[in-house]
Specification:
Blueprint: H1 7-21, E1 25-27, E2 32-35, H2 39-42, E3 52-55, E4 57-63, E5 68-79, H3 86-103, H4 107-113, E6 120-130, E7 171-174, H5 176-195, E8 203-205, H6 226-229, E9 233-238, E10 241-245, E11 250-255, E12 258-263, H7 270-282, E13 291-296, H8 305-320, H9 324-330, E14 334-337, H10 347-353
Parallel strand pairs: 5-6, 6-7, 12-13, 13-14
Antiparallel strand pairs: 1-4, 2-3, 4-5, 8-9, 9-12, 10-11
Helix pairs in contact: 7-8
Length: 354
């Protein structure tokens, strides 16, 4: 079961801290229920009173490829290590798919949360925060457990057949490892802001013009989609950092505009980085003019990751026949290792604030 008291607030605190930085906004009230509009289908047989669905929070952003507002009806969970298990996940996802099934047709839900103009889509999101920071298990093995050692029983798993998600509906999961990754990205962005190498506001997330997917939103500072936050890498396009020079009483550029690529893979081989460089080139980012910083945010990274990256640059330059000047520009591509961040909160302190 979920933890009680101030611990319940931790997932809300963490989620707000994370998603605000990725240009999402929270809409409507938190911790509300709305009436079920499919009582026959959703109401438990032994429940005497009218059934309702919970809404911990709703986050919203505009998807640049779809040009529609994505509402993420979110179930915020804060658990200690031992409470995260297949039964808990299955129960949470069952409640969530029923909630978004009703939300699409509920006037009560729309009155509270449908605040944006234009096309919209309601999805579900399960956000599982591990408040004691001891959870190390691969969360998604609960859906597909590894083959057991001979003589041992297969561990329990989430029964996906019980999750009757309707056609066209989507549920996203942000689990403990992904939360640590996102918190690490934010901590690194904050550090760069303090150093004067990243702007406080003038940045957005980059989406390439693809063959079958075109960016339909005219906005310099696009939000991160849920898909980009759970992808192997995240690309940020930022403006130059401008500061006021007190001596000259004028504004000056202290860091050029460019791209920051947060990379969530171990860097085990040079081919891994070759693939990344090829993608950046196909996106018209790696053009030998842009300032590019690749920042590795992976808990398990190869000890020779810098050597692999250097060899990838050499191979890329050789394959494309770069001259010495082009090589020099290519080698300006930076690689930095970002430490993994974990948040620790005192439940007593939280209880004073909530």
């Amino acid at each position: 079961m979920a933890e009680n008291g101030p611990i319940e607030q931790l997932a809300k605190i963490i989620s707000n801290k994370i998603f605000e930085r990725f240009h999402w906004k929270r809409v409507g009230p938190c911790d509300q229920d709305f009436g079920c509009v499919r009582q026959t289908e959703h109401k438990p047989a032994d429940k005497p009173q009218a059934h309702t669905h919970p809404v911990d929070a709703v986050f919203a952003y505009v998807d640049p490829y779809l040009n529609k507002t994505i509402y993420l009806n979110t179930d915020l969970k804060s658990y200690k290590k031992g409470s995260i298990n297949p039964g808990m996940i299955e129960k949470a996802l069952t409640s969530l798919y029923k909630t978004i099934d009703c939300a699409r047709y509920s006037e009560q839900w729309k009155d509270k949360y449908d605040t944006e103009v234009g096309q919209t889509e309601i999805r579900g999101m399960l956000f599982v925060y591990n408040h004691d920071n001891d959870y190390e298990h691969d969360f998604f093995e609960y859906f597909d457990p590894p083959k057991p050692v001979t003589g041992k029983r297969r561990p329990p798993s989430v029964n996906l057949d019980k999750l009757k998600v309707k056609a066209g509906q989507q549920i996203h999961i942000i689990e403990p490892r992904r939360i640590h990754y996102l918190m690490s990205v934010i901590a690194d962005m904050n550090e760069m802001i303090v150093e004067g190498t990243f702007p406080k506001k003038n940045y957005g997330f980059f989406y390439p013009q693809l063959t079958y997917h075109k960016v339909l939103v005219n906005n310099d500072y696009l939000p991160a989609t849920i898909e980009s936050l759970t992808a192997p890498f995240l690309i940020i396009k930022h403006d130059a950092v401008i500061e006021h020079d007190d001596d000259s009483d004028q504004k000056k550029e202290v860091h050029p505009a460019g791209f920051v690529v947060y990379y969530n893979r171990p860097g085990n081989t040079e081919l891994e980085f070759m693939y990344l460089l090829d993608l950046l080139s196909s996106y018209q980012i790696l053009n030998l003019k842009n300032k590019i910083r690749i920042r590795v945010v992976a808990k398990e990274r190869n000890s020779s990751i810098r050597s692999h990256f250097t060899r990838a640059l050499e191979m890329f330059a050789f394959d494309w026949g770069f001259d010495e000047r082009a090589k020099s520009d290519l080698y300006k591509t930076e690689l930095q290792i970002v430490p993994i961040q974990k948040e620790f909160y005192s439940t007593e302190e939280i209880s004073w604030e909530y």
